[in-house]
């Protein structure tokens, strides 16, 4: 999990995924921006990520409220393979 300060479609994030094989838990779930909290939700950028091995599933992915940060949090529940 990281505040990467990069969107999922940025070159560095795509390169990281390509080099490591990790996938973004946000994939296929829409925009779900996390920063900056002083803007309305529709304008938030998705720059915080949870990357995981492709063998794991994602049961839940949610953006939480901000708790003293200019970023909203991520609540992610991963599923282990059988």
**Unreliable residue stretches:** none
Helix-strand makeup class? alpha+beta
From the N-terminal CA to the C-terminal CA, the straight-line distance is: 23 Å
Order of helices and strands: EHEEEEE
Average per-residue pLDDT, rounded, comes to 95
- Give the strand order of the largest sheet, numbering strands 1, 2, ... along the chain: 1-3
Computed CA radius of gyration, to the nearest angstrom = 13 Å
Shape: globular
Q: How large a portion of the residues is in β-strands, by DSSP E?
A: 25-35%
DSSP summary, beta strand count: 6
Give me the number of helical elements.
Answer: 1
Helical residue percent band = 10-25%
Task: Provide structural commentary.
By secondary structure, this protein is α+β, with helices and mostly antiparallel strands. It is globular. The protein has a two-stranded antiparallel sheet with strand order 1-3. It has a two-stranded antiparallel sheet with strand order 2-4. A two-stranded antiparallel ribbon has the order 5-6. It is 12% helix and 26% strand. 12% of the residues are buried. The longest helix is centred in the N-terminal third of the chain and has 10 residues, at 11-20.
């Amino acid at each position: 999990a990281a505040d990467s300060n990069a969107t999922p479609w940025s070159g560095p994030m795509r390169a990281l995924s390509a080099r490591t094989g990790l996938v973004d838990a946000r994939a296929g779930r829409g925009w779900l921006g996390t920063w900056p909290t002083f803007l309305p939700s529709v304008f938030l950028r998705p720059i915080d990520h949870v990357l995981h091995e492709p063998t794991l599933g994602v049961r839940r992915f949610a953006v939480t409220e901000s708790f003293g940060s200019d970023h909203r949090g991520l609540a992610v529940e991963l599923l282990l393979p059988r």
